[in-house]
Here is the input.
Amino acid sequence: MSNPPKLRIGVAGLGRAGASMLAAMVQHPLVQVTAAADPRPEPRDRFEMDLGGQTFASVEEMVSSPSVDVVYVATPHQFHVENVVTAARAGKHIICEKPMALTLADCDAMIEAVESQQVQMVVGHTHSHDPAIRLMRRLIAGGEYGALGMINNWVFTDFLYRPRRPEELDTSQGGGILFNQVPHQVDIARHLAGGLVRSVRAYTGVWDRRRPTEAASAVFIDFASGAAATLIYNGYDHFDTDEFTFWVGEGGQEKTPKHGQARRALDADLSSEAEAALKYSTGYGGKHPAARGRVVALSHQPHFGTLIASCERADLRPSADGVLIYADAGPDEVSLPPSSSGVPGRGDTLDELYGAVFHNRPAFHSPRWGKATLAVCLAIQQSARERREIMVEHQVPNMGEE
Here is the structure.
């Protein structure tokens, strides 16, 4: 039997997102990382040392390489539309980091490019691929515990006080939680509840004038099915909801409590240029890297905060190693095996694109699904600004488990 074909991937952007996905790519048996594009020479040099692939200073150069079949777009959010359109016009398949774009018009341009060129695209909302979320979706869709009534998700982190580039503190350029963290919450809730959001009512908070972008939100979502969701996010580095998730971190790693450490470590008098340099120094190819695309053995399942889905006859909650089911007879835990793709969530995103490219399976996280999630996030922003309920359009249903 011949060996199965591989996805030959070029990484566009070697920042934290790109470096994190590299770990999943390197471990995946059906993926070959062949190239990377980044305007900075340091991460390009590191990539050549680590993986020996081709490097380019721009995405435009990389898409012309015959050794690249897929472009993984992990550039800053404001460049997603340009990079996706460029890749699609070159006939490359695409994985695009969340958020898909910053406007619905940009989403439309991306959809038109992908569909006209007949290439496959997956939007990388990796947390709805977490094994626990996938199991919860199957349990809800199976109906054993009755109809889904509500979803509650709380996430408290140090998000705002991690070193940032200037645009990451500017909402108009995709900064803050509405484009970086809340999309995970919205995508998980849409996945569990069937996809069709009817309306949202929201509050957002900007509580630190030195870092003037949203880092807190409270959202109420009304689904067409009649279910509802409340999504709470707070990135001000006081409380940490990993205390409620068995001190397992977002990626599945065991974690030591570090309340307020990121906020205390960030010099309040640091200039925006110096802070950006600090971020680069701790990124891929930097002098003090926190991530270089290493494969890390995880102790537990990944998660995104504390999540409880309430059906008519049971509450479902991710545990450290599976899903807890609180039914009439009492709690029971369904354990989950390690992900077959090596790195849960990210590896499953690669599986999703692989299935679309080589097996003609429709992508669940399609461009139209990504646009629908962005539409909810933009409605959250509008609702908070206008202090009223916003009806949401451009929704598409969840067409199955994946």
The mean pLDDT is 92.
